[in-house]
Amino acid sequence: MASIGHVAVGMALGRFETGAGAPWRRRVAVMAFLSLLALLPDADVVAFALRIPYAATWGHRGASHSFVFAAAVALAVGMLARWKGEPGARWGLLAFAALASHGILDTLTDGGLGAALFWPFSNARVFAPVRPLPVAPIGAGMLSARGLYVSVVELLVFLPAWLYALWPRKARAVGSVQVP
User: Fold this and answer.
1) How many angstroms separate the CA atoms of 7 and 82, rounded?
2) Which residues contact 129 (CB under 8 A, 6 or more apart)?
3) Model-level pTM?
4) pLDDT tens over the chain, length 180 residues
């Protein structure tokens, strides 16, 4: 993917967490944090520079795209949140959703090797039964006509998530409780 969808999921999760009543700085910080978590599995592209084969466990779309990796990072986020006085379980679940969504969304692309969702139990790369998203070129290839096409498709597919995350809305009072 071109990362537009991954960021959209993180932004939507951030908006869900903060609602309409949160100060805008907190909302932006939470949306940015969850977007970075949603992008984290693609840090494995460093494998190309290190000459780690694409199909290797630590190659692109390998172990970092798995549910186990998502759970490990989510556990760390939850523990850190709890240490800072935030609800650890809630932050752990949000982090897991952001990270796990990455591998799942990558299985919806029409190219590459699939994602190792079930590592370390299986090194198999999997795809979803339906693959509606075009695979993005890696690196400078994103500056090509193919990269533009992939970006436009992703923007259109994830437009509902972007609208949910960014559409301005005011909190409304119901009794003595603010409801987004």
Assistant:
1) 25
2) none
3) 0.90
4) 789 999 999 999 999 999 878 899 999 999 999 999 999 999 999 999 999 999 999 999 999 999 999 999 999 999 999 999 998 999 999 999 999 999 999 999 999 999 999 999 999 999 999 999 999 988 888 999 999 999 999 999 999 999 999 998 776 666 656 555
